[in-house]
Amino acid sequence: MLWCKDAEFSQGAYSLSAGLQIEAGKVTAVIGPSGAGKSTLLGGIAGFVPQTRGALYWKGVDITTLAPAKRPVSMLFQDNNLFPHLSVMQNVALALGPKLKPGATDRKRVEQMLGLVGLDGMADRKPAELSGGQQSRAALARALLQDRDVMLMDEPFSALGPGLKAEMLDLSVALAKEAGRTVVMVTHDPSDAARVADSIIGVSPNKAWPPIATQSFLSDPPAAFVDYLG
After folding, report:
1. Integer Cα distance of 133 and 130 in angstroms
2. 106: Cβ–Cβ under 8 A, 6 or more apart, which residues?
3. For residue 119, what are the domain limits?
């Protein structure tokens, strides 16, 4: 279980309170109006946004003070976060360490992961030589290869068309589940949550609410989200 115990995450003058528990091995969607703090919540869990109150636990272990690289967390960002001067092989291999010339064992692991995400034969290409969907697949491969218990997804496929976005979301969730990961995903589209999420965290200004089962949230939303869901 991922437990935000009376936590508060702050960026400048904005603070988000979060007292909630996320079940391990499940997919939890994070929804709410623009600017409410969805990315702040994920950034706080990852350690990129300062935590100014409370504690953060993973499976009973306090990870509040751990640096981002030491947390059991990988993250997929909106911009894919690929280094343009590195090949796909080098970008994905960064999940295994900072070496820009991965050895034979690491190359094999990267090639296997590229096969899983549909990038066979593209290891030597640069990001600029890939389509938007292929760049998303490379970023997904790197996040999965990090082998962290929790995968955070901050709308990494928002720039893709509807069909490809749905395909990439389904692929990400399927591979994460197969690996036994816990997934926390930001989305602006309730239909994404309805399709893949076990529960939903609603984020209203300054507050992230405890998860509610997906169908319950969407069919009978809390008062704070009635207008948002229409």
Report:
1. 8
2. 93, 96, 97, 99
3. 83-146
Q: Where are the beta strands (DSSP E) in the chain?
A: 2-11, 14-22, 27-31, 51-58, 61-62, 73-76, 150-154, 182-186, 199-204, 207-208, 212-213
Rg (CA), the chain: 18
Residue 77 falls within a domain, yes or no? no
78 part of a folded domain: no
Boundary of a domain, candidates 126, 146, 166: 146
Rounded Cα gap, residues 79 and 141, in angstroms:
15
17 DSSP 8-state letter: E
All residue ranges of the chain with pLDDT < 50 are none
- pLDDT, tens digit, for every residue of 198-230? 999 999 999 999 999 999 999 999 999 999 998
DSSP for residue 28: E
Q: Name residues whose C-beta falls within 8 Å of residue 161's C-beta, 6 or more positions apart in sequence.
A: none
The answer to whether residues 50 and 40 belong to one domain is yes
Same structural domain, 159 and 221: yes
Q: What is the pTM of this model?
A: 0.91
Q: How far apart are CA 141 and CA 193, in angstroms?
A: 22
The helix/strand/coil state of 55 is strand
pLDDT tens-digit profile of 86-119? 999 999 999 998 877 888 999 999 999 999 999 9
At 20 the three-state DSSP class reads: strand
Q: Tell me if 137 is assigned to some domain.
A: yes
| Shared domain check, 225 and 191 | yes
195 and 225 both lie in a single domain: yes
